[in-house]
From TrEMBL:
The chain crosses the membrane at residues 21-43, 160-186, 193-215, 221-240, 275-304, 328-348. Keywords: Cell membrane, Membrane, Transmembrane, Transmembrane helix, Transport. It is found in: Cell membrane. The keyword Nuclease does not apply. Its main location: membrane. This is Peptide transporter. Residues 158-348 form the ABC transmembrane type-1 domain. It comes from Flavisolibacter tropicus. It comes from the Bacteria. Belongs to the binding-protein-dependent transport system permease family. One of its GO terms (cellular component) is plasma membrane. Pfam families: BPD_transp_1, OppC_N.
């Protein structure tokens, strides 16, 4: 049995590798996971949530360059490498935009940038400044209306999108597999009750159901996971039910029953491993759907809350710039959503072909 199973998965992997579109999707997903894990080491702005606000340079276009004077913060605290990996690094300096600066004795004199054509003269002692007090930064994707680096928030936002997808898929698979397997295996009244529940949930529009759950649980990071996850299990349950209905009549299941194995063992050890292929396919599809739903909720204001850099929230904050002078502020997170969702859809299609899944039930 183990050799047969191993050969099946090896053959599926070989078929998947031949699917160029699926491999492109897999590479994009792996790249997104790497960015999510090490985002605070990659992002130009490693502050928590990439939330370094510099109002003077708000709404600048991609490629914008600005010189800053770094002034030490009085209440700055050191951040360990582990803390930075998890939640970012606290800024040690205030970033003051300047148009020009010069060293005069023990002081640095600069012209602070306030607005277009408006500056003021400032002076700081060297002890109040960083060792290299004057730096120049380029904002590759521009800045939002609060002067935050769009590229940094885009990078950190990858973690939120993948987290929502991962936890949502875990919740939907857990609920869907348990209810679907119970309905398909026991049939009868159990099947009728579960199918009634599935049909009721199925009849409610997804966003409307998410709104109801969100209003019940409140707005926030973890509430989004639960709300989206509890609305996506019906697809999994219907699929698992159909697969279990067709599998429970096979000889190896009848043999397990004759040997006196418990229902839980038959379902968990003998049926579910043999229907894993279709489950993986729908998991990839649900992952993509969860990312889109989370972005929609954040855009509507009931998802992830500021200052967390959700891609949907970034579109909401900057969509006015589409019809003005800087559309990239809203288009960049939109492209990120599109690419990541496309990657999961390509991988899901590749898994379907590699595992020879006949279709949903």
């Amino acid at each position: 049995m183990n050799e047969t199973s191993l050969s099946f998965w090896q053959a599926a992997w070989r078929r998947l590798k031949k699917n160029k579109a699926a491999m492109v999707g897999l590479v994009l997903i792996v790249l997104a996971i790497f960015i999510a894990l090490f985002g605070y080491f990659i992002a130009p702005d490693p502050s928590p949530f990439a939330n370094r606000i510099i109002l003077e340079i708000g709404g600048e276009k991609p490629g914008f360059t600005q010189t800053f004077l770094l002034v030490k913060k009085v209440d700055a605290s050191n951040t360990s490498v582990l803390q930075q990996a998890v939640s970012g690094k606290q800024d040690q300096y205030d970033y003051i935009p300047v148009t020009q600066a010069s060293v005069t004795g023990d002081s640095v004199v600069a012209q602070r940038f306030i607005d277009e054509g408006l500056t003021e003269r400032i002076s700081y002692h060297k002890k109040a400044l960083a060792d290299a007090p004057i730096i120049t930064r380029q904002f590759w994707l521009g800045t939002d209306s609060y002067g935050r680096d769009i590229l940094s928030r885009l990078i950190i936002g990858t973690r939120i999108s993948l987290s929502v997808g991962l936890i949502t898929v875990f919740i939907s698979l857990t609920v869907g597999i348990i209810l679907g397997a119970a309905a398909g295996y026991f049939r009868g009244r159990t099947d009728d009750i579960i199918m009634w529940l599935i049909n009721v949930i199925w009849s409610i529009p997804t966003l409307l159901l998410v709104f109801a759950i969100t209003l019940l649980l409140g707005k926030g990071f973890w509430q989004v996971f639960i709300a989206v996850g509890l609305t996506m299990w019906v697809n999994v349950a219907r699929l698992v039910r159909g697969q279990v209905l067709s599998t429970r009549e096979l000889q190896y299941v009848e043999a397990a029953k004759a040997l006196g194995f418990s229902h839980a063992r038959i379902i968990g050890r003998h049926i579910l491993p043999n229907i894993l292929g279709p489950i993986l396919v729908i998991a990839a599809s649900n992952f993509a759907s969860a990312i889109v739903i989370e972005a929609g909720l954040s855009f509507l204001g009931v998802g992830v809350q500021p200052p967390q850099p959700s891609w949907g929230l970034m579109i909401k904050e900057n969509y006015n710039f589409i019809i003005t002078q800087n559309p990239m502020l809203a288009l960049a997170p939109g492209f990120a959503i599109m690419i990541l969702v496309l990657a999961f859809n390509l991988l899901g299609n590749g898994l379907r072909d590699a595992l020879n899944v006949k279709g949903k039930i």
